[in-house]
Input
Amino acid sequence: MVYTGSNLSQLTTGLDSYLKSLEGAISSRAFGGNLPLFGSHLNNSPVDQFIEKFRSSLHTQLESLGDLPTPKVVQQVLFNTLGSQVTGLGLLQDLDGNKQITIQDIRVVETSENVTYSLKLGQNPNLLNLPINADLGLPKIGFSIDGTADIRFGHTFNLDFGLIRLKVFM
Output
């Protein structure tokens, strides 16, 4: 994909593809399989599904823009979808340091050669109550655990993407 100034609709496909890859990697590598003590209880948990949640919502909103969105329109859709708990998913974090979540927390830079978006996404730690049923693999000792664990899981990450005249980047 090459940025021409009038083909921002291609961002929808590129961003969705990238986020699907990221979602798959997190699901299979971080939460797939059996983790010590927790087994597979993080599979299909809210922790495992956070990217899918915003990816599908964002894809739907960007796709609804049609073929000729402007960089500012895409910025507004990103804000409406990811912004505050009231208008969106509440995933957008303060990028500009003013301790408020505003549309300015989605940085847009457009030149004749490219358009780029920079934003910070995250969630405050959520409490998960997970069952623990573990045999520590030491049969002679006979030590096993059976109970629950309260875990707080949060995340923050920077997301930079755009179209450059020579290539797409994420």
User: Anything to note?
Assistant: The chain is about 30% helix and 30% strand. The longest helix spans residues 10-30. Helices lie at 10-30, 46-63, 71-82.
